[in-house]
Design brief:
By secondary structure, the chain is an alpha/beta fold. It has 14 helices and eleven strands. About 40% of the residues lie in helices and about 15% in strands. Strand 4, helix 5 and strand 5 form a beta-alpha-beta unit. Helix 2 runs parallel beside helix 3, helix 3 packs parallel to helix 4 and helix 8 crosses helix 14.
Length: about 325
């Protein structure tokens, strides 16, 4: 595949980026995706600073290819996290959930490329103004924390493309080579894939959760908890408890109390399918088996090339 803006920017073979997902994206998954020609990402959102340091060091030993770290900017230990990233000479950082202006310049001064994740045109423009190297525009189909406006990927990508000049990565509802081609036809330079990489042996999430993802059908996920931070969840007992509470017109405090602490860890990492928060995208209805990350990258590229040929005959 010829080089494009993103493969050149990150010095990778394929324009496939594995999303930095909490409780799923440790060094094993990141190094496997990078070794397969994509860009692997360590998700720092669920890691204490010293744990992140360990994952970066292990990832360096497992791959000689570029990899990135995803950092939610609302993170409590953000200064320590950024210090470790700079010390360890991580080449690429994806930031999310916060103001890109805060850290972009500092990271770039230390030779790090910065990408910010956005859910709308307004935030994409703010990110471009902040000087980021690229943006990820993530549609409402995506798993985990999501945009309040419910703009779908198919609508969002061309709208963002129209307004920005920097490279654009599409995310949300992409798990196949055909999905990748569709996103790139709409103006994306690459795709970020989350849910598909959860169902891999290398993902650090619990086997129970992986199996629930594989068994998910269309309609089994829903965006909820908008008053706190919108999040797309698989429907389970915890999700039903949230719905019951909504029927009582709850206060924000009541929702916070129900959510409690470490609910996502309980579900995705510890495998409690009843009481845990199970974050996954709508595309889970198209994921039918757990398979190695390298195989997923290979299949996506093969399908992408086949679909491209088919389209040229239309």
């Amino acid at each position: 595949m010829p080089k494009n803006k993103i493969t050149q920017l990150f010095n990778i073979q394929y324009p496939i980026i594995q999303a930095g997902m909490v409780w799923a994206s440790g060094w094993k998954l990141a190094s496997a995706v990078s070794n397969a020609g994509g860009l692997g990402i360590i998700g720092a959102g669920s890691m204490y600073p010293e744990i992140l340091k360990e994952h970066i060091e292990k990832c360096k030993k497992a791959t000689d290819k570029p990899f990135a770290v995803n950092v939610p900017l609302l993170y409590p230990d953000i200064d320590k996290i950024m210090e470790i990233i700079i010390q360890e000479k991580v080449e690429i950082v994806f930031t999310s959930a916060g103001n890109p202006k805060t850290w972009t310049k500092h990271l770039q001064e230390n030779g790090i490329k910065v990408v910010h994740v956005v859910s709308g045109v307004k935030f994409a423009l703010k990110s471009q103004e902040a000087g980021v190297d690229a943006v990820v525009a993530e549609g409402f189909e995506a798993g985990g924390h999501n945009g309040r406006d419910e703009t779908t990927t198919f609508t969002l990508i061309p709208m963002v493309k129209e307004k920005i000049d920097i490279p654009l990565i599409a995310a949300g509802g992409i798990a196949t080579g055909r999905g990748m081609l569709a996103a790139m036809v709409l103006g994306a330079d690459a795709v970020q894939v989350g849910s598909r990489f959860v169902a891999t042996p290398e993902a650090s999430s619990h086997q129970n959760f992986k199996e629930m993802v594989v068994n998910a059908q269309e309609g089994d996920t829903k965006l909820t908890l908008k008053e706190l931070a919108p999040v797309r969840l698989l429907k389970n007992k915890f999700f039903e408890d949230v719905q019951k509470l909504y029927a009582e017109n709850p206060s924000k405090e009541q929702l916070i109390e129900l959510l409690g602490r470490a609910r996502a860890k309980k579900g995705m990492f510890e495998g409690d399918l009843e009481e845990g928060e199970l974050e996954i995208g709508q595309i889970s209805g198209l994921i039918h088996e757990i398979k190695p990350a390298a195989e997923i990258v290979k299949e996506m590229m093969k399908e992408f090339e086949t679909a491209k040929k088919e389209v040229s005959t239309f």
